[in-house]
Amino acid sequence: MDQILYWNEIALDANRDVHTAPLDDRDAMARGPAHSARALGIIHLAMHDAYFGIAGGGPLYDQTPNVYPPPPANSPATVDAAIAAAAHATLSALYPSMKATFDRKHRQAGLTGTQAQQAEGNKYGLAVASKRLDDRKNDPSGSDNGYSGPTAHSDHRPDPDNSGQGYYAPFYGQKSKRFASAHFDLAKPPRPGHASYLPALKQVRAKGIAPELSGSIPEAKQRKADETIIGLYWGYDGAAKLGTPPRLYNKIVRQVAMAKGNTLAQNARLFALINVAMADAGILCWEQKYIHTLWRPVLGVREHDDSMGPSGVAGSPVSNEGDPTWLPLGAPRSNELGKNFTPPFPAYPSGHATFGAACFHMTRLFYGVPAGNRAADTTVLGPGFSFVSSELDGETTDNRGTVRPRHVRKFPGGLWQMIVENGLSRVYLGVHWHFDAFATKNDDGVTPDLTENIGGVPLGLNIAESIFAGGLKKV
User: Cα separation of 47 and 8, whole Å?
Assistant: First the structure.
């Protein structure tokens, strides 16, 4: 049994379950997009160093001299026991309400070898886990206690259709230390009056509108069926039975790794790389979000005119580019009844775009796509690769209780197609501007212009290349 894949699946199930069960404050540091990425980063770094600390063949994440006890004798049984102990310990610390489940999974892990070998591996894995958890003990929570959001025109405020939502993780990016990436800043996003802003507003007003309001949009400009599918397909907005985007991206990489026939060593390295990239994506993306505090379309369309909103000033006539009654299709409240919603944090840059670009580009790098490549790839995914998102699996229900159809999606443009499509998906839900993912050529809203340092895709690409070039070393 491949212990990395085994415990990766358990970690992804925990991500799903913590967003499904009633809230338990003990699990707060693993809930939400940025913190779930943090949890997966910690778990996979512990498994990575548990493996390579004993088996050798690759550098450790933490290269501090004597940070771990001397490794026990190398044997498959000892290595597997170390991975299992590291995974079990970190999972139990990050999701304490689920410890009984992790205990049961540990007993079912199929570990082989003598009692002495297992005991040696267990001791080493626990020591590695302890170091990894201790290293992140001061990370901030997602609480907005002490945060007062801005009220200027074009600044983010809570979704008026879900007005009690508050703010998620306003201090997380600013006060968290990075795992392995260099630091990156983004250019300022377009705001009202900028040449690129109005085309983006017109795009999301038409493509992201709630279905019941679509009659206000000319038919030729309305969201098409495939665009609706793209929006839903990449959802995973902390939904019940689905979890967060890092879970979806891990599931895709799992399918790639199994199709490639990865060795245990390759999986230890690959899953540490992608999850550390997403953990740093969460930190750097959330830092940029609360630096730029850009409003989302639900406010931008409704309050487009300068006379609207808390800082509004009298003016005449009112601009017809906005619509004070506009609502988005919204982030899907899957498997629950209630309104769809706009996520409770600023728009720029997009978390989906940053996480997805960091994960999928890291996977491209791992399988030999050169750094700097910004084009469709056909070498990593086979021509027949397809994936079924749990948002559209024939079982998940929408926010009215209706089962969504099953949809099998192919990606002839490879992981690069996923990066671009995942970023644009948020426009089709009406929760992001296209420049939250990337600038576009001639402001067409769909063709990436990555010469500009705008949006989550450039940020995620830079994070992946920084960590990969740096050898996954602790910063």
Answer: 10
Distance CA 471, CA 191 (A): 38
Cis peptide before 317 (omega within 30 of 0): yes
Count of other CB atoms within 10 angstroms of residue 250? 23
Distance CA 159, CA 356 (A): 24
**With contact defined as beta carbons under 8 Å apart, do 33 and 49 qualify?**
no
- Which amino acid makes up residue 281? A
- Residue 187 burial (CB count, 10 A): 13
- Quick check: 230 and 224 in contact, CB under 8 A? no
**The one catalytic residue among 88, 106, 156, 352:** 352
Are the CB atoms for 78 and 118 separated by under 8 Å?
yes
Q: Is the pTM of this model over 0.70?
A: yes
Residue 409: phi and psi, rounded to 5, are -115, 135
Distance CA 124, CA 78 (A): 9
| Alpha-carbon torsion (404, 406, 412, 418), positive or negative | positive
Nearest to 444 by CA among 436, 452, 434, 453: 434
At 457, which amino acid appears? V
Residue 352 is among the residues annotated as catalytic for this protein:
yes
> CB within 8 A of 66, min separation 6: which ones?
none
Dist CA 347 CA 155 (whole Å): 9
pLDDT by residue, tens only, the chain of 475 residues: 999 999 999 999 999 999 999 989 999 999 999 999 999 999 999 999 999 999 999 999 999 999 999 999 999 999 999 999 999 999 999 999 999 999 999 999 999 999 999 999 999 999 999 999 999 999 999 999 999 999 999 999 999 999 889 999 999 999 999 999 999 999 999 999 999 999 999 999 999 999 999 999 999 999 999 999 999 999 999 999 999 999 999 999 999 999 999 999 999 999 999 999 999 999 999 999 999 999 999 999 999 999 999 999 998 899 999 999 999 999 999 999 999 999 999 999 999 999 999 999 999 999 999 999 999 988 899 888 999 999 999 999 999 999 999 999 999 999 999 999 999 999 999 999 999 999 999 999 999 999 999 999 999 999 999 999 999 999 9
- ω into residue 349 within 30 of 0, thus cis? yes
Give the length of the chain. Answer: 475
Sequence-ordered list of residues with C-beta below 8 angstroms from that of 421, at least 6 positions apart, any chain: 230, 234
Chain-centre distance for alpha carbon 399 = 22
